[in-house]
Specification:
The protein is of the alpha/beta class and 586 residues long. It has 23 helices and 26 strands. Strands 9-6-12-2-3-11-10 form a 7-stranded antiparallel beta sheet. Strands 22-21-23-24-26-25 form a 6-stranded mixed beta sheet. α4 (209-217) packs parallel to α5 and α7 packs across α12. The longest helix is centred in the middle third of the chain and has 13 residues, at 322-334. The two termini are 39 Å apart.
Length: 586
């Protein structure tokens, strides 16, 4: 039986609302009631859009603002089924949780912490009846597991809208143990508690990681199956995650921990503004290499597990000489990974961030491996080869074909595809389709999207990998791509990010083989950088490192298709720089 999915996806729609009412929840939090015709089904530019839906207690909408005040220039492009974040120099976006949704009244509430100088707080502080606000989302809603006996709701005051909504609506009929850190007692709110619930208020400075961790450690240890939901400052949550996973032994599917804000965000934005007309110097690769070594050797984990550890004890713990560790320390200290000296070392702010799996991927995960491969960029450009192949002796596709763990990392990278596939699942190409062949690390996301669209039950799905299909579909056992070409024909094939780790020759070979199996192929690939990504300028180089080709746009895919006997029928824009290219046999 397939595992329960963690999220339900929603259509991504750009909507305009206006302020209906404003009132103060506490001296630190302002509630803005928003409403308008675009919360109901509506049509804009000939495209019909569904009604606004935010059924989850921690759903979030992306509010769109503009540093220069020109919000209309900052708006994304609305696709028939999705959003394309086109470049906009002055765009500012912030995520907020709807505190209350009243479908009948056509309105919802957003709560803003107003004791700050961020753009959204400034907008809320001056909001008046009739002011307009544009937003996108929510893109998904959390599905809590079945059979839970209790839940932890942990957060700072920015988490109060989600916590309050949970307690009002009770998506889970089980005791809730609530922990909230607030800067002072005036930030406390009345919560809808029931018998068996507990609530703990802790007065602490915003982003105080030590106070939050100590309070979490003091939470009760209920019997039975539990779940932990937490939202606060991103770094403050790192020790909370570590404690809940390692000491409370909560499995990954019983944790939902989200950084709602970053303590240095405002200062960084101000610094960026002062350098707007300047060009940043080319950084040295040395700090990156030193941090990579510290992560790989276990230095970061060892210091986290034993704060105040001496240099000698650290060296013994990770199996490296004290002299060797001493080579790393100056740069680790200079970049905030560690603080202290040889007599006692602790993690700095940057080191705390490296405890998060996502953050350390830049150094020790697939992204780090691709960066190292770029050391071969010059010879790769001369020879027309992929840097990965020159660096490792094999193509990236060859590598992941024989390494299930690496293939699993590609599957994880594709999880966000599930939020973008509404345009594909709504396409007429599914009419009359009975059998669908799936290939590529994004296959699980395609299955999730078909499920949300109500199409999965009417399809016979075949996975072009040689592991147990059910395990692959639920994403729990991602298998390398070893395609069984003897399973017989299908009506359509969906190749979800199947080309993103293949060279042009390997991509052509896959398309040639698919031509013997199906009359129609859908290629789901990123054709341009994600407009919201801070690393958009690097996207083409990352793709080149992997495959020897930059991001393949529709023209590049058409060229590959022709080589394999296909023609491009049409291109379905999905948003976030991703497209579905429909191929028919020529």
């Amino acid at each position: 039986m397939a595992a329960q999915r963690a999220f339900t996806t929603h259509p991504l729609v750009l909507r305009r609302v206006t302020v209906r009412r404003v009132h103060e929840v506490t001296p630190r939090m302002r509630r803005v009631v928003l409403g308008g015709d675009q919360l109901a089904p509506f049509t804009r530019d000939g495209i019909e859009h569904p009604a606004f839906a935010a059924p989850g207690f921690d759903d979030h909408v992306k509010v769109i603002l503009a540093a220069d005040g020109d919000v209309h220039a900052a708006l994304p492009a609305q696709l028939p089924h999705g959003i394309e974040w086109t470049p906009a120099e002055h765009r500012l976006t912030r995520d907020y949780t709807p505190r209350r949704v009243d479908v009948g009244a056509g309105e919802f509430d957003l709560d803003f912490v107003v004791h700050g100088d961020g753009p959204a707080a400034a907008w809320a502080a001056s909001a008046r009846e009739g002011d307009e606000l544009w937003f996108v989302g929510p893109k998904s809603s959390l599905r809590l597991p079945d059979g839970l006996d209790w839940i932890f709701l942990i957060g700072d005051e920015t988490a109060l809208p989600a916590i309050g909504r949970f307690l009002d609506e009770r998506p889970l009929d089980a005791p809730a143990h609530v922990l909230v850190t607030v800067p002072d007692d005036s930030a406390r709110q009345d919560l809808a508690l029931r018998d068996g619930d507990t609530v703990t208020w802790v007065v602490a400075e915003p982003g105080d990681a030590a106070a939050l961790e100590a309070a979490v450690r003091a939470l009760p240890a209920p019997a039975g199956e539990g779940y932990a939901w937490a939202a606060a400052e991103s770094r403050a949550l790192l020790p909370v995650r570590r404690y809940l996973q390692r000491e409370r032994k909560l499995p990954k599917d019983r944790l939902n921990i989200t950084g709602y804000w970053h303590r240095e965000e405002t200062a960084a934005a101000e610094a960026e503004d002062t350098r707007a007309e300047e060009h940043a110097p080319v950084p040295s690769p040395l700090p990156w290499l030193v941090v990579r070594a510290a992560v790989q050797l276990g230095v970061v984990d060892a210091v986290a597990e034993a704060p105040g550890i001496t240099l000698g004890a650290l060296a013994s713990r990770v199996g490296v000489s004290a002299t060797g560790i001493g080579v790393l320390l100056p740069l680790l200290a200079a970049h905030g990974v560690v603080v202290g000296d040889e007599g006692g070392l602790r993690l700095g702010a940057a080191g705390e961030e490296l405890l998060d799996d996502h953050e350390r991927e830049e150094y020790a995960g697939p992204e780090g491996e691709l960066l190292l491969a770029l050391a071969q960029l010059a010879p790769a450009l001369r020879d027309g080869a992929s840097p990965w192949r020159l660096a490792s002796g094999a193509t990236l596709h060859d590598t992941v074909t024989h390494d299930a763990e690496r293939y699993g990392e590609l599957v994880e990278e594709c999880e966000q595809l599930a939020f973008l596939l509404g345009g594909l699942t709504a396409d007429p190409l599914w009419e009359g389709v009975e059998t669908c062949l799936l290939t590529g690390p994004g296959s699980a996301s395609v299955v999730a999207a078909l499920d949300d669209a109500g199409r999965r039950s009417r399809l016979r799905l075949r996975v072009a990998e040689d592991d147990t299909p059910a395990a692959v579909l639920r994403g729990s056992v991602p298998a390398p791509e070893r395609i069984d070409w003897t399973a017989g024909p299908a009506d359509v094939a969906v190749a979800a990010k199947a080309l993103a780790h293949r060279t042009d020759d390997e991509a052509t070979l896959l398309l040639t083989r698919l031509a013997a199996q199906v009359p129609t192929v859908v290629l789901i690939e990123a054709s341009r950088p994600d407009g919201l990504s801070p690393h958009a300028a690097e996207a083409a180089l990352h793709a080149y490192a992997a495959t020897g080709s930059p991001l393949r746009d529709s023209a590049a895919l058409a060229t590959l298709a022709r080589r394999a006997g296909w023609r491009v029928d049409r291109v379905i824009p999905l948003g976030w720089g991703t497209e579905a290219t429909v191929l028919r046999r020529a």
